[in-house]
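We emphasize that the prediction below concerns an isolated chain of 342 residues; any contacts that depend on oligomerization or on bound cofactors are therefore not represented. The input was used exactly as deposited, without trimming of termini.
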Amino acid sequence: MGITRYRKGFTREHRLLVIQMWEDQLTKEVKRSMGWAAPFTIFDASDGIATLYFREGYGEEWEKQIAENVRKDRRHVTDSMKRYSDALGPLEAVFARGEALGSAEELSEYYNAVVRAWVGLDMAFIVPDMKDPAISEADRKIALEMRKKSENFSRHVDFIVGKTIRKLYPQLGEYADYLSMEEITAGAIPQTSELEARKRHYIYFNYSIFTGIELPDFLAKNNLASEEGEARPADVISGKAAVAGTASGRVRIIMKREQLRSVEQGEVLVAPMTTPDYVSAMAMASAIVTDEGGITCHAAINSRELNKPCVVGTRIATKVLKDGYLVRVDAVKGTITILDRG
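Result of the prediction step, given as a token string:
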């Protein structure tokens, strides 16, 4: 059997329960609503930060399936966004209250509601950037509108999960963040040592949690490979120029929302991606650089509004750059040049 190849996709700050929601909607709900089952994702997580690896060709398969559905039904995108909006409504009420759910049963219902809605979120992020002629400008417009409406979706989902599991399991403290839905439903709470191990590092794949094994060994053991490539030392990093301009400054790496308060005036903000929570910090930065995204992503749109040079889609900026590096961002060429590693 040949090796299955994966590529780095996103990096997100999420609890295990939310990672399970993400995988369930990709492999189960997408099949029900779209007629296509996405391949399993590899979630490589440490201290609440998960990097997602998607099977090679995953994005192209998604776009192909959407385009095929549109050719069969011109209203496919419109109707999908309507279903997403309808599914989002009750969840937005939960988000607005901002309160913990009352029981494990309520949490299970919330879990399922999020899984049903998340498929629409996927489409809202994919459709605006599709080049297939089957996708109309009207399709892109309605999907982009729903994308803007959903920028904080996963953060809100995670917030409610966090408040609820901390309320249900106060004795676990931060280790409650590493409980699975199956463990909560069955009332089978793992030993603290297992939760400690998950906090340090775990891999979630094919509905299973793996601890005590690093990603390279896990890949080799399961006949998988990552096409991410090594984040080798480099003087120049390349990405997509999203907002033209140039700026120089010291790097500030942001991997968690709690780090945003550390951004100082004139620094270059470097992150996997940005959300509305980042706007105040972006306003202080001299330039914005992200691992992910295209010209319609949050970082690009808000950098335009703030008139900040912005380079997106570098894939490796958060790994190659370090806090304090002096860099020059050329958001005309789409490059970040390291001037000083001191």
